[in-house]
Design a protein that fits this description.
This protein has helices at about 5-30, 60-65, 80-95, 100-125, 130-140, 150-175, 180-195, 200-220, 235-260. It is globular. It has about 260 residues and is mostly helical. The structure holds zinc ion.
Length: about 260
């Protein structure tokens, strides 16, 4: 049997299981005094503990047709979505970077970003409990990362944190309101630490464009004008994921653009 195929199948399975764990983190991390590990998985509505066969990533959702077997409440589509996305990201990371320390580090990075995306959508916060250890971990990881030098990571985390801090500060001075949360600043510092300073221009550009498009659409729908608040963390995270897999192409086109501009 082909070794690449074995790695693919195992990373899909492993990723789905980790995705299942991330669902628990997404649900319980923003709630104070709630443990990630205890109690065991249960239905969020009737609190009946789940049997093993009700707890299989993606498959249980399909097999239960999206409803709790005990109380018949609809199970959020978020559960299989997170499991599926983590399975695909895990397979993509190990396909792209191989079964290496670099691959393992970016696997952790993907899990952190996926968790941040969902928590930010639900609660409009990016937990420091993920972003701050993420900054440190990203920097330590750069010493083992074959894709990145530690200098690039260090500049990335400083500039990433600094740029958004400056924008947020100017926004506060000029418009007397907070435009960007402190959570976004720490998240961009984490992205800079994991991807290096070279990634930041793209990440800011891509997230601003996608964030603006979605923001305008939301504004048109809600008709509340400039007061509509949409979380920015998911756009930063999405941009980081795009850069993680397409950095070569992005930097190549960026260079072409710079040369044509001269
Ligand atoms: Zn139930």
């Amino acid at each position: 049997m082909n070794i690449d195929l074995i790695i693919l199948v195992f990373s899909l399975l492993f990723g789905a299981i980790i995705g299942s764990f991330l669902n628990v983190v997404i649900l319980r991390l923003p709630q104070e005094k709630s443990s990630i590990v205890f109690p065991a998985s249960h239905c969020p509505s009737c609190e009946t503990p789940l049997n093993w066969y009700e707890n299989i990533p993606v498959l249980s959702y399909l097999f239960l047709r999206g409803r709790c077997a005990h109380c018949n409440t609809t199970i959020s589509l978020q559960y299989p979505t997170v499991e599926l996305l983590m399975a695909l990201l895990t397979a993509a990371v190990f396909h792209h970077f191989g079964l290496t320390i670099t691959g393992a580090g970016y696997f952790v990075f993907c899990g952190a970003l996926l968790t941040i995306i969902w928590i930010d959508i639900h609660h409009q916060i990016i937990p420091d409990l993920i972003s701050l250890p993420g900054v440190v971990l990203g920097f330590l990881f750069s010493f083992f990362n074959t894709n990145l030098t530690w200098q690039s990571s260090l500049i990335g985390l400083l500039v990433g944190g600094g740029v958004l801090y400056t924008i947020a500060f100017l926004y506060l001075v000029l418009r007397k309101q907070e435009g960007m949360g402190g959570g976004d600043i720490k998240l961009l510092a984490m992205i800079g630490a994991f991807l290096g300073w070279q990634s930041l221009l793209f990440v800011i550009f891509f997230s601003s464009i996608t964030g603006t498009i979605v923001g305008l659409a939301a504004m048109a729908k809600q008709k509340k004008g400039g007061a509509t608040r949409i979380p920015f963390g998911p756009f930063l995270s999405l941009a980081a994921l795009v850069y993680l897999f397409f950095d070569q192409q992005i930097l190549y086109y960026f260079q072409l653009y710079m040369q044509s501009a001269q």
